[in-house]
Design brief:
This is Diaminopimelate decarboxylase. With about 400 residues, the chain is of the alpha/beta class. The chain has 10 helices and 18 strands. It binds pyridoxal-5'-phosphate (PLP). The site of pyridoxal-5'-phosphate has 14 residues, from loops.
Length: about 400
């Protein structure tokens, strides 16, 4: 694409307001990697990570299905042109309204026994016979430990006890299982061993529960590098090799769609958050760059600061999905062409809360009021996770730079 910097400067000059900018070429690259390295699998784009229309449309145009986490995300995927079997709707706590709205638009993945009964009831009322999946909370963890209590899914060991209940549901047919245990995994060994266990669980579901599985959804977990100091990238080549072996091991026993949810993997690194410096001040020896829409434009950097404050010195930050992060997760750049000397600054937002700190005490080229600040890794769980309504500031805009350099905004 035309130099990143000139596109960013042009957009800021024209709109004079904070924005996100997403690069299609980076998304495209990630999509191609997955398609090439895992030909046995189908991929679902996790819409919650970034539901911006041009992104959803582009990824779905590459043959990805949708990992929908709400009825509204089912509608987003449907509007993008997906047929119902390409939309897998999985979340805890679906309401009757959610089920009525999505029953014939998606494959619903039931998250509890109550939900299974409700889906069956709704299907009966509508005189439908529907195919559904079940989210299972397996009796193991990703690290090979024993299963834990979870708000997600149905405990694996209860399945057999409830076989009569499953068999009594006249208007639904269980055709798939869904397991998701952890996000942001960078060790391919952990991922493929986890996949292996899900294959074994699928065999149990087929052989003992009597379900004819049409899909196995292995969930998300493909990690990205947040910290250049602490993280090593997920070794896609080795994961791909192991997946091929797994496929060979199970292909004679399982004839189902094998599905992975992409999570943050495809879009995170394609996004940048851009804002500008509206004030510079000093207080008792510290310098502050005040930007428009800090925490309320892009929340994630402030979460790093918050977690750092509660983490013992020298320890890794403990996140949870979708807030996994690292101390050096984000790169802060002042969009300046000329070189100037470095100085220590903290970047803060324009909210009346002391939580509104994007980064403390980093070295940056000397900045002026009006300079543009660019922050990396703003593609996933970024706009969608940010409290943009707080304090009623104008909302950040979003731009999508296509591979042919056309820029669109919606
Ligand atoms: C069921 C499910 N699938 C996929 C994802 C997204 O994947 P990730 O967080 O690994 O990027 C999540 C994250 O919360 C999830 O809960």
């Amino acid at each position: 694409m035309e130099s990143n910097l000139s596109v960013i400067e042009k957009l800021m000059r024209e709109y004079d307001r904070p924005f996100y900018v997403y690069e299609e070429s980076i998304i495209s690259n990630k999509v191609e990697i997955l398609l090439e390295k895992f030909p046995q699998f189908e991929f679902l784009y996790s819409i919650k990570t970034n539901p911006y229309n041009p992104i959803v449309n582009f990824i779905l145009s590459k043959g990805f299905g949708a990992d929908a986490a709400s009825a509204e995300e089912v509608t987003i995927a449907e509007k993008a042109g997906l047929s119902h079997e390409k939309i897998l709707y999985s979340s805890p706590g679906k309401t009757r309204k959610d089920i009525e709205r999505t029953l014939d638009k998606s494959i619903i993945i039931a998250d509890s026994y109550n939900e299974l009964i409700l889906i069956n009831q709704v299907a009966k009322e509508k005189k439908l016979h529907v195919k559904v999946g079940v989210r299972i909370n397996p009796d193991y963890t990703m690290d090979g430990g024993n299963g834990v209590s979870s708000k997600f899914g149905i405990d694996e060991e209860t399945l057999i006890e409830q076989k009569d209940l499953f068999d009594s549901l006249t208007n639904i047919q269980i055709i798939g299982i869904h397991v998701h245990l952890r996000s942001q995994v960078l060790d391919y060994n952990i991922l493929y061993r986890y996949y292996d266990k899900i294959f074994e669980l699928s065999l149990f579901c087929q052989e003992t529960m009597g379900w004819e599985l049409e899909f196995i959804n292995f969930g998300g977990g493909l990690g990205i590098v947040y910290s250049s100091l602490e993280d090593s990238p997920l070794d896609i080549e080795l994961l791909s090799d192991e997946c091929k072996k797994l496929f060979e091991k199970f292909k004679h026993k399982i004839n189902a769609r094998l599905i992975i949810e992409t999570g943050r993997f495809v879009v995170c690194e394609a996004g940048k958050y851009v804002t500008h410096i509206v004030d510079i001040k000093e207080s008792r020896g510290k310098k502050y760059l005040v930007v428009e829409n800090g925490l309320n434009g892009f929340l994630r950097p402030s979460i790093v600061e918050l977690l750092t404050a509660y983490t013992p010195e020298g320890s890794k930050l403990q996140g949870c999905e979708p807030l996994f992060t690292a101390k050096d997760a984000f790169e802060f750049t002042i969009a300046k062409r000329e070189k100037s000397f470095l100085e220590k600054v903290s970047i803060v937002g324009n909210l009346c809360t002391s939580a509104d700190i994007m980064v403390k005490d980093i070295m940056l080229p000397k900045a002026d009021i009006g300079d543009i600040l660019v922050i990396s890794k703003a593609g996933s769980y970024s706009y969608s996770l940010t409290p943009v309504l707080f304090a009623s500031h104008p909302l950040p805009l979003q731009f999508y730079v296509k591979s042919n350099e056309e820029i669109c905004t919606e």
